[in-house]
């Protein structure tokens, strides 16, 4: 994959991507048909780039844009229940300027954090295919390269956790052996040649399926964010 000199250049390439025909067709159909409650919206309907602080010490990786969330608003984790749940935790941990994430012009700013995802287009049933995740992996690899201050990666869900480990392998970063198992609160160190290790933290994804059943509570997610802040701030 082309190596980009800046996050801005990378994000421009992400927005223009049409590699996966199934995802292109789905995201554009959602944007054209819309939900009745969003009938007045001009949907984004394109791949969703990463967003946040270019000097971030913490990278958060989700699954994919939501069909009527980021695919509508054009900003990662914005405009749906998952985004609201995550943003509240980021705000409480001091990583966001406000506790809500409604649309791209709402004034939200991330502080020391950057948001990305394993897949950049909204997939049918929130389930990207393996080949679609593979097509997107290079973008995550480039974010690893360009976020030079990154010290912690928070993987939101199993798919993101697996995507992080695969992207790390592409950069020849040394992931732990045996391969770490996904679980809420799990942690591992990923060694990088010539640089300090990256801490990988895992959390259940803030999907409605998890938050409305109590599998993931606001306290559980906040504790992961607080831990990420603590690990990112260490000098050693």
**Broad CATH class:** Alpha Beta
Number of helices, counting only DSSP H or I runs of 4 residues or more: 8
Order of helices and strands: HHEEHHEHEHEEHH
The Cα radius of gyration reads: 17 Å
Could you tell me the strand content as a percent range? 5-15%
| Mass-distribution shape | globular
Main sheet: strands, sense, barrel = 6 strands, mixed
CATH T-level fold name:
Uracil-DNA Glycosylase, subunit E
Percent range of helical residues: 25-40%
On the 0 to 100 scale, the average pLDDT is 96
Give the termini separation.
33 Å
Describe this structure in words.
The protein is an alpha/beta fold. Helices cover 37% and strands 14% of the residues. The two termini are 33 Å apart. Strands 1-3-2-4-6-5 form a 6-stranded mixed beta sheet, sandwiched between helices. The chain has a single domain (7-233), classed as Uracil-DNA glycosylase-like domain (Uracil-DNA Glycosylase, subunit E), CATH 3.40.470.
